Amino acid sequence: TGKLPVFQTSDDKLSLHTEFNPSERHAAPEIKPINWDLQTYTGNYAFSQDLISDSSYDWQSELSQRLQELKDNTNDSLIMAQLTNGVNAVKSSDLVVDLKTALNVNLKPQDSAAASIILSQSAFNALDQLNDKMNRPLVQPDVTKPMGQTILGKTVVVVDDLLFPSAKAGDA
Hints:
Number of helices: 5
Strand order of the largest sheet: 3-6-5-4
Helix content: 25-40%
Strand content: 15-25%
Number of strands: 6
Structural class: alpha+beta
Order of helices and strands: EEHHHHEHEEE
Distance between the termini: 36 Å
Radius of gyration: 23 Å
Mean pLDDT: 88
Largest sheet: 4 strands, mixed
């Protein structure tokens, strides 16, 4: 448990400096402490040694994969809860236009340059069906990543529809 100091963005700029003169003082940066508290999560499956010994099927590997799935589902839901905390959902009439507006207008240029796009499976499916004016798919493979894809030049992360708050299956 603790606090992590995070510098907030500002519009302050460097001041013109002439040699041998003192530098102008700037306003102190705003720092907000972000509280953090580590939690422990656990899960298990009970199975007998007889099951493992009397079967040719690799039960240990199967159960290990199920535990990994539980871990992934837990991590995904916790991450999405934090990413969407305080975010208001809006209806989109044109997903591509709205993504471009978010990247070009809503974010500062340096944030837009480093941005990734997180989409529900249904939103990704809708975009994956679209082609540009030259009839090329809007979703492009990113050859620098093993399973990566890009939209509008941004890395795309696809998550289950139901991980978004108040979402139903099929919500984009």
